[in-house]
Protein 1
Amino acid sequence: MSQKEDTIQIGFKVEGMTCSSCSSIVQKKLSSLDGITYANVNIATEKGQVQYDSSKIDIQTIVNAVDNLGYKAILNEERNTQKVTLKVKGMSCTACSGQIEKSLNKMEGIATATVNFAAEKTTIQYDPKKVRLIDIQKKVSALGYELDLDEDEDEAVDQDELKMNKAKKTMVTSSLLTGAIMGLMIIHMFVVPIPGYLPIIAVLGLPIIFGTGWHVHVGSWKALKNKSPNMDVLVTLGSLPPYLIGLLGLFFPIQAFIEMATTIMTFHLIGKYLEARAKGRASQAIKKLLQMGAKTAKIIVDGEEIEIPTKDLQVGDIMVIRPGEKVPTDGIVVDGKGLLDESMATGESMPVKRTKGDEVIGATINKQGLFKVEVTKIGKDTFLSQVIKMMEECQGSKVPIQEFADRITGFFVPAIILITIGTFISFNIFPEFHLGIINWGATFLPWVNPDLTPLTLSFITATAVLVISCPCALGLGTPTALMVGSGMGAENGILIRNGEAIQTFKEVKAIAFDKTGTITKGKPEVTDLVIIEGITENEFLYYAGTIENGSEHPLAHAIVERAKNDKIKLGDVVDFNAIVGMGVIGHIDGERILVGNRKLMIENNVPYEAFEDELIRLEEEAKTAMLLAKGNQLLGIVAVADPIKEDSAEAIRALEAMGIKTAMITGDNKRTAAAIGKKVGISLVIAEVLPDGKVEEIIKLQEQYGTVAMVGDGINDAPALKQSNVGIAIGTGTDIAIEAADVTLVRGELSGIISAIKLSRAIFRKIKQNYFWAWFYNALFIPIAMFGLLHPMLGAAAMAVSSLNVVYNSLRLKKVDISPKYS
């Protein structure tokens, strides 16, 4: 087995992470395991991805490694099986549920089936390739019961919603108790002393420090156990010691800090709740895509139309789609025609015409007409699933600028703890120096109290340093911007594979375009026939159409289409041979037929000079002219033109105006290529390039300009797309080879490149802003706290605000205009 076959990629959710230090711990541990070739853990999405060599390590070892760190790894659903919870009607006792369960577990393709009589539900784990839900329904019906194939909505729990509700509950509880403590403190200090004040607030503070805030201390323990202190450690040190010292105040005449401890924890919980809510908004794009799919599909079985769940569809099923209904999954139209709203995939609001033979995308909406569509893709292979996968990969990836921030974050918390200890010691060794600053601060800061003892002031100052520091803001800078940006891109038909492409895209100095299907529509048509005397048009097209019928080239398809449209019956080709960069040769009815360029004619001693003027004329009209010969006699010229896309010239002009050089790489001869280049305004035309020569041309452009992007169809141009600094696949339908490119433009229009550049620049701008504010915040407030001018309660509030600022700044990306209009 090859290395490539041994390498497997899996995704999983990681529970229990609280900040970027946690994700770094998990990532570092996974990367250290023998057999792991790539590991990435993202705090914003709370997901991890690993590539591993299955001959060296198994999934369980990977899961155990995460679990042993104190976190929980939850693998994505097994690829081969699906799990459903369905309602069962007609059961009257436990014997009924037992009978159904026994029968279902005997069915081939069902891994496990359990039936709950009290809830009237069955949960089934099954392989959809071996058994269909309608078969399971028939089995239950044969037993005399009824199985409802509409999946139980109660089971569809939004994990983000659950997490947000849990965070809200802890925040509200903590806020109410802290509010009560603050109220009592104000009365006690400014109105009338409250008998038993300290025991009362100690009791009220207990559920905050050891209840709603318990998970913070657990997170601290995990971080310290893994020798990688994080944000939780700072909050624990800022809340737990003050509370415990406050309890000592019940027995000894010392300053109590219970109010401070509970406020610090509460501000932290408020910040975490608001952060979870904002991150939920940032990840809405994927949720929207998941909700877009149709829940049911109507298919034809034995001549009858039946309705089944979409997840029960199989390749080859014939779906019936009426006006107003969603297309359940990807397929090809086998009957009918009409208009489809494909805005969810392309961002284009105008419906598009689809007829027999056209591909359709799942989750698009039928606006007009009745379609019969054959299913071609299901489950994880569908276009929608691929888009979601690509977005998740992008959101889980890292931008090069982030690597520096991650390294700093790893040392941040230990450094803060050292600064805190240093501040405490300094305050007690040099009290006059610190008291001088505090006395100065007391003249304009109401929370600074110089009357407290040096020991008390040193403790308050050290606590302030702990709680004001915020590594979370640094950790969230990139992931949140990527979450929002990739979602915006998907809504506009721009799919970004990784964060690195975003940073590179903004630095692009030149863009190289493939011609066919990129600048042009990729649907060439025969425009001219120049035929010698004595040969009829039908005879000429018979030879041309028959030999080109064996070719896969788009130009060949145009000639075959013309022959078929003229009702010419094509013959058979013997000894067919396609010669790269020249044309095709074969034998038809015993005659040797050649169709190709001048090189092919020269190689085979066919004189063509008499047609040179016609060739030049056609090439200057941006047409591809091909010579056709029978034996050594030239029969004429067939000219094919590929119409230029409506927006190509405008998009290329806009790119040039942005200071980006444009180049076109094509196999066409220089004259035809120059004519097309002139029409669309391309700066540099590179003609007569063989398919395997595109990579070399990209390298030359990189030597000349530096950072170069390549735009192609994503299939034929894969090597060139990989060689370029940013590979852009452009096309329409479900077969866009998004694996080959860093960026995929679903709509198939060049104007999408303008939007993609604007989006990448906007995302990177937000990332830089986020890092600036995170650094600015820490650089400004940590020294202020060190000099005793910041109360820990205010520090805790500011710490929460700094994280929120980063998240909400990323959300402001949604207001950026990425329309292709250049201004």
Protein 2
Amino acid sequence: MTLPQRFLRELEEYLRDHRNQAHRVWHHLHGMERNFLLRSDLQDAFADLVAESDQGLSASPIARLIGWCQEAALNDAWIYLALRTRVARWNYLRIHVDTMAPEPIDVSVFLHFKEQLADGCCDDEWALEIDLEPFSREFYKLHEAHSIGKGVEFLNRRLSSRLFEDLGKGDRRLLQFLRVHRWRRQQLMLSEQITDMHELRHALRLAGDLLEASAAQTPWSELSGPLRALGFEPGWGNRASRIRQTMQLLQNILEAPDPENIEQFLARVPMIFSVAILSPHGWFGQADVLGRPDTGGQVVYILDQVRALEKEMLSRIADQGLEIEPQIRVITRLIPEAEGTSCDQRSEAIAGTHHARILRVPFRDGDGSVLPHWISRFDIWPYLERFTVDCERELLAELGGRPDLIIGNYSDGNLVASLLSRRLRVTQCNIAHALEKTKYLYSDLYWRANEAQYHFSCQFTADLIAMNAADFIITSTYQEIAGTAESAGQYEAHGAFTMPGLYRVVHGIDVFDPKFNIVSPGADPEVYFPPSDTERRHLHLLDEIERLVLGGETGEDIRGALTEPDKPLLFSMARLDRIKNITGLVRWYAESPELRTSANLLLVSGHVDPSRSDDAEEREQIELMHQLMDHHQLDGQVRWIGRHLEKDLAGELYRFVADQRGAFVQPALFEAFGLTVIEAMSTGLPTFATCFGGPMEIIENGVSGFHIDPNHGTAAADKLADFFACCREAPNYWVQISNGALHRVESRYTWARYAERLMTLSRIYGFWKYVTDLERAETHRYLEMLYSLQFRQLAKTLRKD
């Protein structure tokens, strides 16, 4: 997409005719003495100029330019601008300070200029450029921003109309697809007896006559003889009425392919009986792990996901008339030095399921010896290739064959899923949870400065490979993909970036690719429900919670005792790292007399004793917490609990805070989704959450909760204090926001909806991959080269053995 010619002419004319005004703007930006300016910097600077003296600036082409600009890079002679004119549509422009001549440029030129500014010695004309666009030029792409995240609907519309166009090729592929389904040695759907589409149509008509004459509840067992004689195998349904509906859907597709019929038909096809879920890093377990380094929402997400998926799989298999036990394996790392957790057990049954287990596979050093201790998610890259091979062997032995679907989680799990799905030729789904590049400012540009601690060279390369290798990607929100009208999304930020001295990405991931789908998770309804549901409440835990929250006990895992326990509680629960911004929340609270008067602050986060943490960043945050509490004398108003709470206790704690007419706050600098936000809202707790990331989409501001800007702590504290003041003046206000939160979650964020959608997506992408060219063989070959020549070499440099 290029800048409109009319705008360029208007800009040229303005810069020529109002040279002094333009120079005033450029001079002001240069006066900030920074080579790189973000959107907020530019807008604040421009607003200051307009407030000082508008002189037509606010209505000028420069105002539009600043409104579009996401980033500026400048030196004494040039200003380079990255312009986001619409959601996910980018242009690049440079203006010479002396000539005032605007010039559209390629993304490569913009990135090269950034490299020179960031690293003066980096002027490599032959730097490696990664460009995946040529491999998808002929591929179907979305065009409208509002369609982003609706990939499967788009594919169904585009491909269904072309299914039978290619001289019978579509017929043959559809017939082959119906015959390919098996469970071990049991043939499903169609037998080899039906050899062409004419025979299939004829058999469907005869089967229709048979089923019409049968009672609706007649089971498959009584119909299997005559249906098998026609070429139909089990899998069409468990009773006559369902079998007939499934066959009618197929007849409708054969008559005139329709996206809705295709989706409904594929949802009934017996395709998925086993699922492998990859999550290598952290302490993956079911008890005593939450709050440990690298261990939080992702573990909760996956365990809840597994329970919901198994229920959905069991329901579908029963509807298909099959007697098959679905199998789910969550594959993670085995940690011999397990510190009292179950992370040293090879296999562990997942509570609340019948056929799902955690399968742990160890990391191995170059000599094959097992790595005994936990290591940070930023240090695991050298171990993942061997881990993939070991996982393949263990998984095939566990399942007795290949899984039907592989789901990756986070950067490491997505890379392993990419390698494993390629080796086993299985449909692959990716879930990012959080992409580190957007969490750490300029982490790509100044990657060398962060390399010793974070190894972003490996992580960003792994993300590029996994994103492009996946058959489909699910996200929790639209913002995760494409942001808002004002700011770029997490995936969108991987479209173009540079890592000076390593490579520059000119076309990385395209958010208009139909592989993206929004599938929002929920909170476990057995744990997170409103306080009014007294029959399900764990009232026996209330005494323990009162002691935990309001008691006078302090020690190595608790600091602070509330001197005015009757005040409402302002509650937050998260890992204690910089991005979660718990120390920021404490600072807001400490510096707001109104908020300190209105509520006590309850924190469940990290450790209180820094010696108990293995994570350098967490230890730093612990020390900062103690400094803040000492400096502001908070021990009578802040209760800091450094314990890992089990789910039932955590659920009842949310309700306890709600009983006190309190509120939940999620102050993160950025949050990809925000499971704690959903948990809090599910219990009817009024919730304040960051405006950066998923919570912006989850919460309807002022209706089902409130947005806060973590970069403006005073304003956030004022908003919190105002809420408690409103509740004192009008007690029904708390109930109004609480009811809004409950309604929002019930209407959009449940695990049942999630599981149904994920299973349907898996079938649809698997189908189109089989009957069309969704395989993307050329892209995979390019990614294999990137993996071998870049990622493997980078990972090798991290090995300590």
Protein 3
Amino acid sequence: MANNYKDTMNLPRTDFPMRANLAQREPQWRTMWDEQKIYEKAVARREGAEPFILHDGPPYANGHIHMGTAYNKILKDLINKYKTMRGYYSPYVPGWDCHGQPIEHKVEKNLGPERMAEISTADLRTKCRYYAIKWIDIQREEFKRLGVLGDWDDPYLTFTPQYEAGNVEVFKRMYLDGSIYRGRKAIHWCTRCSTALAEAEIEYADEPSPSIYVAYRLADESPWHEQAGADPTSVLIWTTTPWTLPANGFVVLNGEAAYAAVRKDGDVLILASELLDHVAADLGWDEDSYQVLEGTYTGEQLADLTYVQPIHHDKTCRIVTDPFVDMSTGTGVVHGAGGHGAEDNQLAIKHGIPIAMPVLDDGTFDAGGGPFEGNMVMRDDHLILDWLREQGTLIGERKLEHSYPHCWRCKEPVIFRATEQWFVSMEKTGLRQTALDNLGTFTWIPAISSKRMSAMIADRPDWCISRQRSWGVPIPVHRCAACGEVVANEETFDAIIKLFSEKGADAWFTEAPADYLPKDIVCSCGCGDLVPETDILDVWWESGVSHTSVLKAREELRYPAQMYLEGNDQHRGWFQSSYLTSIGAYGRSPFENLLTHEFTVDGEGRKMSKSIGNVINPIDIVDKLGADIVRLWVASSDFGQSVAISDEILDRISEAYRKIRNTFRFLLSNLDDFTPDEAIAFDELPEMDQAELVRLGDLIERVTAYNDAWRFYMAQREIGDFVGNLSNVYLDLVKDRLYSDAVDSKSRRSAQTVLNVLHQTLLRLLAPVLAFTCEEIWEFTPATLKDAASIHLTDWPTLDLSMLDVEKLRDDYAVVREVREAVTKALEDARDAKIVGKSQEADLEIRLDPERSAILEQRGIEALREFFIVSDVLIEPVEDIEETSVTVTKSSLEKCPRCWNYRTLGTDDAYPDICPRCAEVLSALPASVSNEA
């Protein structure tokens, strides 16, 4: 009957569960962090250290978080946790963008038109505030569930008094130095939202439009009048915006281009000579259906001719010239409406042409629309076409699909509309050039992202910062009730800053100016009756001034921040508004590093869209798989490329997570009886243990270097490869020592020493990523091996191996590991051939070149038997051999029933059926234990 040696073995023991059940367990760690104030303690530990402030770009307080916001917040948290462990002072203050049209629109929709007609601005703002607070609370819990640590009890909110006052601080600086002005310009206007829009609020999408050719009848004689005879002569324009015709004020020709006249169906039409064939083809004219009159004339020769306004026939307009007229499309005759286009607006001002604006805020025509008064722009284009057809001036029409600007909020097409607005000048004080000059003062991550924002700054128009809404920070100026003049100076701004700081921006709508402005403030006309501006600031301005309202205002933060981090859409949004307001107010960038990540997409690379049905909810993943799976996905993704997510990708991430968890379970199960006092000095460890520490030291260096270079996915790849190799090689080979050697033997304690270092190091390397799991592992780590209440209160790992010959160990064991790969392959073949079952019953004959043979022989046969987990090893040096050759035979020795190794048995009479090592172990055990065996 075989002896029972199980009770004499040091079998692994741990209560750390194999199954993660993250969705159920993670909330308890989140509760622990909150109750024990782990974030506060982590920050306090670094008080006075070098700061690394990652400033949070505020998500909008409207709706649940999505995959993109989850990715963004986790990436920030990973960096903050890493920097804190590395010794930096890294407080994280999350924020929310709380003002703006989307919230106001939701509140308006909930109230309905009747209540909206009755509600005061102050009451509307109160309801908007409550709406924002509701979603702030919801999103806060969702972000916390992702494992993000920060000052969640005191975030920054753009509707707080301190924040709103910061808006005025920046406005004051830029207004007084001349950067901010009020002017009438054609800007993007959303008729649905009834507000102006900045470039950052515009999205482009394909839109069908009417493509029409219209004849504008000349009021003067043309150079072709003798040939034309009684036929009316017109300039032929082409446009895709029929609704702008009521505002037409001029026609533009290219001064250097040649223009011809053609007779077609009783009309003489003037157009660019080089575009005649193109127009004829587009309109379907046969060559025989029209006649080209003799002679061509340049645009300059036709300049100043007048024509009858196409809608208002009692008015005449004139022809002007400009080089911008393109000769690749259209007719070379451009319809100009100064109220409906940026270039048109500039040309009208240049030539002293009155600018008509017949379109109201809601997109309907006023009396200036003539016969179309009350009709809607764009929607009622067909009415304009019908009218032109009746007049005989519609020469041709078709449909055209083209890219067109849309409102980023409501997704509806926008129009250009000239209105009085507030602008930040890009030129007057040199803001554009200063901004361009400072683009090299901070680090772009990745470097290629610099091209995107620099091009935008170089080409952008003046920034329209006023909006015609209620829920936001008011433009902080007043107007004279008598003459309409703007009244704003240092004293008024300081009074408004004080008002907002004490009572918030709501006071603008409830307090009388006389109650907060200095008594001696009057208009230059002598009138002291001042009226507050009704427009509010652009929300991009609002979020952009967080460098003043947050970084400068909060004691725990610093200006400039060490990092701003957002998605690539923020190059025209928050990044740019933050940068321009900081340059404008302080002459410097608000950030030292600017990290841009790409968008999240599905497994096929498609943008997530409800219409496609490929939207993935991060909280759904958390509820099913756990937040750490999402966090591991973030850390494993290259943020410089589109970040894909799918069930298949999450399955791979989950498998990688299981390998990590199982590795820690093995480590914990073999450290339950180990204390730091029992650790063996590194220079006294067996050589293979020292070599594993060298591998670990190299891993620390590589992971740290990758993290410092913001290449987190490479760091994660290194850890994953290390853990895989660790499980397959070192942890496999030390099982024999751990389970079979005497419990207090130096050989076993040596292995445990290395396991403890592996455990402590890998746990810290992974803590920023697997925030919950590492906390759970820390909880199950023996108390004697812990130096903090939480893994998130520990330091980034370092490993002093100065007492070892690191280079030799690295080089020699690279050879040993290379040979082990050949051994592993040979053992697999031997198993397939039924030569051996387990590797322990194998004898190896290894033939390789003398240099590597010598390296193996230096390790000693006993060490090689342990490293290859075999019965015996024979090394045979062979000259001129190219590849390592391994022959596997079955050992002639017997299997030890205790350790299962194939060794010489029966050398100890007391234990005749086991190997000498096991006999020695049993001899040292108490009699009660050894007798049972």
